[in-house]
Amino acid sequence: MAKYVGLPLALLFGFDVIVVVAFKVMHLRWIAQPAIPLSLLGSAIGVIVGFRNNSSYGRWWEARTLWGAIVNNSRTLARQAVTAIRPVTEEDVQNVQYLQRRIVLLQIAWVNCLRQQLRGLEPWWELKDILPQEEIMLLKHEKNVALEIQKRIGLLVTEAYENGWINERQWANMDDTLSRLCDAQGGSERIKNTPMPRQYDYFPRIFVHLYCLLLPIAMVGNLGWWTPLGSTGVGLIFLALNQIGTDLEDPFSNTIFDIPLTAICRTIEVNLRQMLAEKEIPALERPIDGVLW
């Protein structure tokens, strides 16, 4: 908690001490003010902060829902690739196996690339063990790398249809899965590129800090020397609530308050590589200092 709101709480405690000294030692009795107006102000600020926090959590939960859909649709796409794409002749067997593996690996590359794009990071390190270096060099010229990978998967699905390895209905089903993945990417990018209105952050922060400054003035008449404890305790609640709303605004900011994209992508990779019957499968992500990234 000290790391979370430690600095503003320490400043509030120092201000509380100044108010108490002025009231008890310097006998500045006019400093003490009625508590009822502050109670009404606190109720109003609580409503404002609660509304902002609900909006922030709504963004966070929508992001988690979108990535839940990405998990499900990634599994669906891999299953469709492995079970629906079938060779027509003996000569097709190796080509079909290559195409199946290529679709699955591109999907693994897509989720990791999208994760890095949303976090504002370069995706190339994540792709080096998934795609050939030559393909990575070509992808570096693309503005939206994740979208380009989606296009390449779509072209492979169309190739399977043109070669007669899937029928028209199977092609439509796989294309529908790709469309749902593209919708999830668009939803994630909308959250990332559309920040909360600045008023939602600016005014609650100002109101909370103002309220905290008024706390010792309203409490000192009744609490006396105990004012710093009472004021700091109430201030802790309001400061923490305000900070929670700020932290949840951007679920892709690469902090401990994000949705655990790294763990989600690793889960997808493990599941998809299992569908390819690979022997060497990476381990699932584990929490680091109690945080799952």
UniProtKB/TrEMBL annotation:
Its main location: membrane. Pfam families: Bestrophin_2 (PF25539). InterPro entries: YneE/VCCN1/2-like. One of its GO terms (molecular function) is chloride channel activity. The chain crosses the membrane at residues 7-25, 31-51, 206-226. It is found in: Cell membrane. GO terms for cellular component: plasma membrane. It is a multi-pass membrane protein. Belongs to the anion channel-forming bestrophin (TC 1.A.46) family. PANTHER family: UPF0187 PROTEIN YNEE, VOLTAGE-DEPENDENT ANION CHANNEL-FORMING PROTEIN YNEE. This is Bestrophin.
